[in-house]
Give the backbone structure.
Amino acid sequence: MKEFVIRAFSAAVNAVNPFECVRKCLLVTSSSISINGSSSSIDIDPSSPLYLISFGKAAAAMTKGAEEILGKRLKKGIAIVPKVEDTSHPLKSTLYEAGRSNLPDQRSIEATKEVLRMLDCAERNAVFLVLISGGGSALLSLPSKGITLDHKLSTIHTLVSKGASIQQLNAVRRVLSQVKGGGLLERFGERKSVSLILSDIVGDPLEFIASGPTVHPQSSIRATTVIDELNVRSNLPNEVVHAIDSEKASPSVVPNGADHVIIGNNSIALKEAKNLLENGGFTSAITTSTRVGDAGDFGREVADTVVQLKNRDKMAILYGGETTVNLPPNSGKGGRNQHAALTAMIELSKRRDEWKDLNFCLLFGGTDGQDGTDAAGAILSSTDIIDMSTHEIEEAEKALLQANSYNFWKDFKGGKCHFKPGLTGTNVMDITIILCDSSMHM
């Protein structure tokens, strides 16, 4: 049963493969750029030069897919990636490596300057194809004039420590950046652009994915309101406070000719997993693709669902989204998927009498193949739980309190429940699968 659940997870990941997503959805002719057939299309002049800008964890693969379609129509491209891993198939676009620690660095700034130089030199009838994926905010980064990278990083750290929401963070980032919050869009001017987006945020809000560089900000939240509400004005560098107090209103006129298309997200991945499970004879249901909140609460929810399925057979339940873990002082090593799986296991171990005749398998996994560690999550069966000793349950509870789920799964059953598929090259948040089938082996 575990092998079949892993097949379903792999199907989900393959459905949002960055290279395939771009290659399959993009059609370029002498007079138009179409995405997903005729669902989105812009007219272009046959003489219009095409430029490519790509940034994010999936930038290299997305760029490769686009270059296959664009061919000789592509005049120039720049891709900013966290790590250059594969040089066996060189790209026409120039690759820049930056943001290795998932934070903007000096290399991010230099690469972004190269992007802006390309835009400034591009023809008046140029068309820009922009490929955006998770992690792009750390790669496409250029602080506003008078603001240093250290100013920006310390400000964001202060806001996060005060519990700032993503909306509040983006309101401040817009002021402190030349490219975020529609800054890149403004540099296009009246020239046409198409953004293909691989979403790693719940609900696919365009202005939040990679901090929305090609999207006119929709939020009316002002940065000055944010720092006053969070009471952090006195904790911020003077240069930052001055920039925030000098914030200009968003332009009332939005540049024309900008199109945005989500080409991969959690919903697409879940549907592909569901199709595979149904073809395998399972009645399948997607509960949600937007599950957020505490990872422990989610683990308990999964346990409750398993108990409710005790009289069902050949049944699969799928969840998507991205939870969080509230870390205790001196926390251990773990991640949201491993934490949720550990919580579900402990809960089910206490309720064995309620489901003891049910065969099931649970998989909690990050679609990028990592869960803050080299593990994507955990995969466990009813047999794994039934066979737990009192000592193992005690160790599980101890690991949960210490947020040390990684080390528990590393040792439990010799690590066979630790889910380590390796880096997948994509990221559309997390997937959880419950599979019930009395006829399949664990």
User: Anything to note?
Assistant: The chain has a mean pLDDT of 92.
